[in-house]
Write a structure and sequence with these properties.
alpha/beta
């Protein structure tokens, strides 16, 4: 089958990915094997390719926003509700131990034994992929394969970030950076009654934010016109954290959504943290988060801005992502 593997982690201009012909994967007894119908291109894939994240599997196939059609049901996965021909999703989280204190208290995203698609195991930059049946996701109807793919990480992580930001009913939410995840989270927040203010440097992203109904749109580090109850930093730029904290009202919360962030500059306690302002990180997601968000997407129409690339152009899609050449999300369509 055709696939892409990260052979030489490094700057995207150095060509860290190789296009290869690889053997068809062999599903384990508890796995589903799917034919990949679409795979989103996530910034985390870029972090894996460029070596911002440590290598966990040499020559890994990236991609963890996979929409697929089941072609094989493993022996132990039979009778678990999945059948050949079903349309399912493969997301970032693919294993937790179920026994540690974090799993037992419902925080499986913090499991020290967790494993991830496209980092610990091969993902969706390929024609076929496998997933443990109990981490496969049922997908909402009413979306094309290409539009569904970004929901599986950009959407789920944006939803987790909203939970961490604890936006109060009718509250004011600031969003810093407006890419694939942010443009979904903004719609979820607005549907829940929040007033959304967007800060981004990209002119095309500002146009998209305006079209999606943002109450205000400003430059990346500019102050919003009102104090914020909550904020989410989607851009992987630590230098924006002080500006986001300074924009918070008393008791406000800043959630940082990315898996990787450049260094945060020194903070001034009085300006950035006093009056019980908080910073919270976001680490992966639970399966409950994923199911809740996908159910929400099934009940509320989310407008996706996607850009299609053939599987043969996966390296170009990552390069375009690295250089901010599109708004919304890129999707590989084999």
């Amino acid at each position: 089958m055709r696939s892409w593997r990260v052979r030489r982690p490094g700057p995207i201009e150095t060509g860290p990915l190789d296009a290869e012909r690889t053997p068809v994967p062999v599903p384990g007894p508890g796995d589903l094997m799917v034919r990949v119908l679409a795979c989103g291109v996530c910034r985390t894939d870029l972090h894996v390719a460029e070596g911002d994240l440590p290598v966990r599997r040499t020559g890994v196939v990236p991609g963890h926003e996979v929409v697929g059609e089941v072609v094989v049901v493993g022996r132990d996965a039979q009778g678990k509700g999945f059948a050949v021909g079903d349309r399912v999703g493969i997301a970032w989280l693919r294993h937790t131990c179920g026994e540690c204190k974090f799993c037992l208290r419902g925080a499986e995203n913090l499991c020290p034994h967790s494993a991830y698609t496209g980092w610990d195991a091969d993902g969706g930059y390929a024609e076929l992929a496998c997933v443990p049946w109990d981490y496969a996701l049922r997908l909402p109807s009413g979306y094309s394969d290409a539009d569904t793919a970004p929901l599986l990480c950009a959407g789920i992580i944006g939803y987790r970030a909203l939970l961490r930001a604890a936006v109060p009913p009718g509250g004011r939410l600031g969003i810093y950076g407006f890419g694939g995840s942010a443009h979904i989270a903004a719609q979820v927040a607005a549907a829940r009654g929040a007033e959304v203010h967007v800060m981004t440097r990209d002119p095309a992203a500002r146009e998209l934010a305006t079209a999606l109904g943002a109450a205000s749109v400003r430059g990346a580090a500019e102050p919003p016109p009102v104090l914020l109850d909550s904020a989410i930093l989607f851009a992987p730029v630590g230098e924006l954290a002080p500006a986001a904290l300074a924009a918070l009202d008393r008791g406000g919360i800043l959630a940082i959504a990315g898996i990787h962030l450049t260094d945060i500059p020194a903070l001034n306690y009085q300006r950035h943290l006093f009056q019980e302002r908080e910073i919270r990180s976001v680490t992966a997601n639970t399966r409950a988060d994923a199911r809740e968000f996908l159910a929400f997407a099934g009940e509320h129409r989310i407008h996706l801005t996607t850009h299609g690339y053939s599987l043969d152009r996966a390296d170009r899609a990552l390069t375009d992502l690295a250089h901010g050449r599109f708004t919304g999300a890129a999707v590989l369509v084999p």
